[in-house]
Amino acid sequence: MSQSLKQPNRLREGGRVDRARTLSFTFNGTRYQGHAGDTLASALLANGVDIVNRSFKYSRPRGIVAAGAEEPNALVQLGSTEAAQVPNVRATQQVLFDGLTAQSTNGWPNVQRDVMSLVGKLGGRFMPPGFYYKTFMAPASMWMTYEKYIRKGAGLGRSPMENDPDSYDHLHQHCDLLVIGAGPAGLSAAQTAARGGARVILCDEQEEMGGSLLDSRELLDHQPAAQWAERVIDELAALDNVTLLARTTANGYHDHHFVTLHERRTEHLGETAPLVDGVRPARSRMHRVRAGQVLLATGAHERPLVYGNNDVPGNLLAGAVSTYIRRYGVVPGNRLVLSTSNDHAYRAALDWDEAGREVVAIVDARQAPDGEWVEQARARGIRIITGSAVLEAKGDKRVSGARVATIDAEAFKVTGQAETLACDTIASSGGYSPVIHLASHTGARPIWNDEILGFVPSLVKGVHAAGSARGIHDLAEGLADGSAAAARALAALDLSAGTLELPQVDARREGATCALYQVPHEKPTLRGPKQFVDLQNDVTAAAIELATREGFESIEHVKRYTAMGFGTDQGKLGNINGMAIAARCLNRTIPEVGTTVFRPNYTPVTFGAIAGRHCRELFDPERYTAMHQWHVEHGAEFEDVGQWKRPWYFPKNVNGKLETLDEAVARECLAVRQGVGVLDASTLGKIDIQGPDAREFLGRVYTNKWAKLAPGRVRYGLMCKDDGMLMDDGTTSCLGENHFLMTTTTGGAAGVMEWLELWHQTEWPELDVTFTSVTDHWATITVTGPEARKLLAEITDIDLDKEQFKFMDWREGKVAEVPARVFRISFTGELAYEINVQANYAMHVWKTLFAHGEKYDLTPYGTETMHVLRAEKGLIIAGQDTDGSVTPEDLGMHWAIGYDKPFPWIGKRALSRPDTRRVDRKQLVGLKPRDPAVVLEEGAQIVLDPDHAIPMPMVGHVTSSYYSAILGHGIALAVVKGGHNRMGETVYLPMVDGQVHEAEIVSNVFYDPKGERQHV
Amino acid sequence: MFYIHCPYCEEHREEEEFHAKGQAHIARPADPESCSDQEWGDYLFFRDNPRGIHHELWVHAVGCRKFFNITRNTVSYAILETYKMGEQPHFTAEHPDGKPAEKVAAEAEAVSRQEGVNV
To answer: Domain boundaries in chain A?
Structure first.
């Protein structure tokens, strides 16, 4: 590993870094040193590292451009170990810590020598917007292959392949006023609100609060502005009603003042959270803030000028130059040319000059600049070239010169002879764009303001903007604006604001800014050197011009065609310039062209931060039955049914080998058909229904009749939606004249409960009936098989005589000495008893059954066997054999439809619509494969003529399919067009591998068609 | 994410507690058998999708389990009011700033007569 211990660009003094604390870090394999208080970007600049990345499309070398969230180039991959990998971190936002390890995101094999740059250089002219779509899309099947290499070449960062050792928190917060941004306007706003006693949250994305005050040349109360900021922050920190969140980015503004704040708590300490007393604290917190009012003090981003080769390392934003010098004590070069359209950017030249390095020239697009900082520069003897701009940067891996000429911005023409100035740094400024991202997350369209040459936010109710965020860039006005906005926000909440003496700002005369976005060049845009608009997505002015020529006139279309403002960048630097160029090409004004929409998140957020604690076992609640532990101890394999963990099958160890699913299921099926089996059916939904109108209600929500169901009896019911389609099924038992117990499918329980409430509360509130979910209160144990009666008789006091306790009866009594309801219903077609006991007795009952069951070889079975057994009997599972487009008629269940019931029950009217009466509807049938060894694939499509040309007309599909051990062949349930009248016909199922299975349409009841076994 | 005032619980709760159930005030025809296929089809399948004020049926699914109505602006997403079943909205497309007070009173009276409820 090479080492570089010098920091050639570090100033001896000045800035807010701690030179006494030296930190070492590694970038692209080289070790460097920086200081406490540095960002990775400032430390790289201090070390004179020019190239930090390769560009996305053309693979051009790229350097650091900005000092904050708007940085488009310096995206790095962090992490010294696999588990610690974090992609797409902006070096300008990553605080330096000792041992930090980072790599360029792009560049293969490395940023200095890049394979793709050859493509960029040679192919540059041949890579217009839409290049990838146009070139690589055909044949479509090859896109996956191309994409792999394109991605490798472009490099978009990568996710770690190992588990993340860190944890992440979510916090719900409430406040009266949320202030976003702790620059001058944000601080005065927070102070105003806090002094009034309001609950305030103040957040700022940077390491230190203070925003522009931290590197400002201006004085507040005759002292450096940063000192005033420190005093205000100290005052706020001491107040109980204020929460200060530094290192916290407001990433999304959602409905009703719901704002997500992402607080980075340990990312300045190490790549994983350092242990504190043996515990690893949360790496980040997602604050989910519900605010009374929100105040956006998000400041502004400086807009770069668009000129030729403006992407060569050494091209920076003017403000970033000042930030690096004043805040970090780093001068990012030796010889500066400043290209500007405004007064404010002059501070870069003044700061550079004060740092003792050479300002070659200030190139000002205005004819007669005369502001105070202009005069100061003049007084220092700095050369000012007016009416001019930098047309083009010279150099390849670092700026070596700037071509400068007089221009006519309005006519978009170079008017003079160009002069080349030798320099290594070009700083540019085209003005300031308010940071309106959060405001536009609300859906409010920003408004163009000609005075400030930028979009200002339009605001929904309860949202306020202050200072630079709404184009008030003057410091004194910004401070006052923050305070006034806070007072307005509090007034809306009927709270009073505190009083505040604003600090005194020395008045400074500032000249007007001229409108300059793209700088003209001697050559037309399409032929001149590349002028980059969006550095991150490699979008050039030529690309935008081409897009407009190809007919993309809407700015949203231009964005999608060129990728301008895509991805993690969200158009922070380039959007306004891009719109200005589109406006020029289309001969419109910027407001006519309009702006694209910014979306959350403002900066990238890791999946860990979004997931919070909702991962692994906390990802989704898991529900266990009362017998779960027994199932675990007896080796059950589990399957997820909704949130429930249900035993899927119970594999046995046979001759030292564990049974496969098929082997276990075959054994379990035969045990039920020939002996006795037991199923934990506790997960079935159970709803207790009571009231004088309970019976009437059942008659309205079920398709069949309930008027005559006597206490002690059970009935199977079908439930439809009002469109006549089956939604759920289950049995309902009459517990008393006004008391019923309804069962639902496991997955449908919550939905059915809400369905019943919906009809009761909205349509039939006059019915006196109540619903209570009792799913968890009762455990259900199904004992089924020819030996079921004998087994149960050993442990119950209920008379099981077949004349006394018939099929579809239920009885109350004791089972294993505990109170129980026993229902004689069958989902297997065998003699069956469903025992319901209070859940906390269930394990006892279950174990008692097994104590007595040994002599009957009592076999526990899971959901898979349950499915096979019910399919052998042709019994449907709602949601598997139905899909919301199947009526009870389609299922052949006319016997469960009470057309003559007095009340027009839910679904009835729809069953007489022409569509539901069609004879060619898909109807439920059985399929018997010709080859007894074949088990058809669930979902397989059914055709009548396998030799038909493709596309073949498809007449249905398989909904359930299993191997039936008792029958010795495969069985399937299917829906087939007009299937009820196709009994005995042969159908075909062409498979992906070219095989075609043949099957006969048969009755859906494969086993015991007369249903004698359940009645014994 | 919405912040919804449940008119039964009488407090604001997060949207996660609620389920949206579609357009409000869709009454099931009292005599479905006398509906033409077209009328029944309209009841089943056709819903408004207005730009602006819209009345929606919601349920406080993991709270009090009560159904209620929301008047919401589909452009701004602002919730103008929430009201109990059987009540009429104060804000409508014809009266986006709220119905005149006397009209509200008259309608409330009509509703109470219809439902046989004493005010």
So the answer is: 18-154, 168-300+435-492, 304-430, 523-604, 620-683+775-798+812-861, 917-1015
Count of C-beta atoms within a 10 Å radius of residue A478: 26
3-state helix, strand, coil in chain B (%, to 5): 25, 30, 45
Whether residue A139 is preceded by a cis peptide bond, meaning omega within 30 degrees of 0, is: yes
Report the alpha-carbon distance of residue B79 to residue B68 in Å, rounded.
13
Q: Which domains does chain B have, with CATH numbers?
A: 3-87 (3.30.2270.10)
Give the pLDDT of residue A567: 72
Q: Among A926, A931, A925, A1014, which residue's Cα sits nearest to residue A968?
A: A931
Token code pair at residue A815: 């089972």
Is B117 near chain A, with CB under 8 Å? Answer: no
Structural contact between residues A299 and A469, judged by C-beta atoms closer than 8 angstroms: yes
Which CATH code is given to the segment(s) A620-683+775-798+812-861?
A: 3.30.1360.120
- Tell the residue number behind the tokens 């300031």, with chain if given: A432
Domain spanning A523-604, CATH class: mainly alpha
CATH 3.20.20.70 for the A168-300+435-492 domain, yes or no: no
pLDDT tens by residue, B59-93: 999 999 999 999 999 988 999 999 999 999 999 99
The first and second tokens of residue A996, run together, are 């075609």
CATH architecture of A917-1015: Beta Barrel (2.40)
What pLDDT digit, counting tens, does each position of B52-62 carry?
999 999 999 99
**Distance separating alpha carbons of residues A333 and A440, to the nearest angstrom:** 37
Gap between the Cα atoms of A627 and A643, Å rounded: 16
Query: Is the complex ipTM more than 0.95?
Result: no
Q: Which of B53, B18, B15 is nearest to A290 (CA)?
A: B15
Spell A411-445 as b/e; 16+ CB within 10 A means b.
eeebeeebeebebbbbbbbbbbbbbbbbbbbbebe
- Write phi, then psi, for A969 (nearest 5 degrees): -155, 170
Whether residue B52 lies within 8 A of chain A, CB to CB, comes out as no
Q: Are strands A284-296 and A168-180 parallel, antiparallel or unpaired?
A: parallel
Confidence of residue B114 (pLDDT cuts 50, 70, 90): low
- Residues A135, A87 contacting (CB under 8 angstroms): no
CA distance B37 to chain A (A): 6
Chain A residues inside the 8 Å CB shell of B66 = 761
Helix A318-328 crosses helix A346-354 at what angle (to 10 degrees)?
40
Count of CB atoms situated within 10 Å of the CB of A24: 15
Q: Which of A254, A754, A914 sits opposite B37 (nearest CB)?
A: A914
Give the containing element (helix H, strand E) for A413.
Answer: strand A413-414
Domain A304-430 CATH class label: alpha beta
Given this model, what pLDDT does residue A685 score? Answer: 97
Q: What's the pTM value of the predicted model, to 2 decimals?
A: 0.88
Q: Does A802 touch chain B (CB under 8 A)?
A: no
Classify domain A18-154 by CATH number: 3.10.20.440
| Cβ atoms of A281 and A273 closer than 8 Å | yes
The answer for residues whose C-beta is within 8 angstroms of residue A123's C-beta and 6 or more apart is none
Alpha-carbon dihedral angle through residues A235, A239, A242, A243, given to the nearest 10 degrees = 90
Per the document, the length of chain B is 119
CA distance A331 to A440: 36
Q: Using the beta-carbon criterion (under 8 Å), do A255 and B3 form an inter-chain contact?
A: yes
Residues in chain A, pLDDT under 70: 1, 107-156
Asked if the Cβ–Cβ distance from B40 to A757 is below 8 Å, we say no
Same fold, A168-300+435-492 and A304-430: yes
